[in-house]
Design brief:
It is flat, with a radius of gyration of 21 Å. The longest helix has about 35 residues, at about 130-165. It is mainly alpha-helical and about 230 residues long. The protein has ten helices and no strands. About 75% of the residues lie in helices and about 0% in strands.
Length: about 230
Amino acid sequence: MLTYAPGETLAHRLDPRSKLLFQFAFAAAAFAHTNPRGLAALTALAGVVLLASGLPPTTALWEFRFALPFLVAAPLVEALTLGPPWFVPADAASPALASYRVLLVLLVSAAYVRTTPVRDSRAAIQRTVPGKPGQFLGVGVALVFRFLPALQADLARVREAMAARLGDERPLRERMWLVAAAGLNRAFGRADRLALALRARCFAWNPTLPELRFSRLDVPAVALSAILAAAALV
C-alpha cells in the first residue's frame, strides 16, 4: 500500500517544499515536452527519483495497477476506426506518449508519498499558500493521504472476503456491484467516524505544525526544479 514509510534515503531528508516544487516542475515539463526525446530524459530523471526515494519501480507500478489499463487502452481506442483498415497504428502514437507522460508523473508522485509524512505535507502547503486557502488545502491533502489508504485496504478486504466465499465464481457484473456497494458503505462509515473523531479532538484549522527547514540537500533539488520549469516554458 502506498503510504509514508520512514527511512534515511536522500528523498526522506529533503524539505517537503522542495519535493512539492520538483513535482510541479516535473509535471509541467512532462506536459510541455511530449516528444520521445523529452520523455526519454524525463524517464531517466524519474528513475533517479525512485532510486533516491528507495522505492522500487515495480512496487510503484503495482500501486497504480488500477490506472494502468486505462493508460494502455487509450492509445488502442484512438487507433481503432469504424472501417478498413480498422486499426491505424500511427493514430496511437500521440495518445501513447500522453499516457506514458501521465505514468511518469504518477511515479514521481509515488516517491513523494513514500518519503513525506502527512503532517509535513500539510505544513508545507499551509506555509506556502497563505491564509484560509492554504489551511483548506493543507487539511484536504492531509485527509486524502490518510483516507485513501484506508479505503484501499477496505476494498482489498472486501475482495478477499468474496474470494473466501467463492464470490469470484459469480458473474463479473455482480462482483463489481458487490465490491462497489460494500466499498461505498465502508467509505461512508469511515467518513462518519472521521467527523466524530474530529469533533471529539476539537479539530483546529491552524494547529501547531512541524518545523520545516531547508538544508544544503535542497539546493540541487530546487535548482533542478528551476531547470525543469524553464524547460517547460521554452
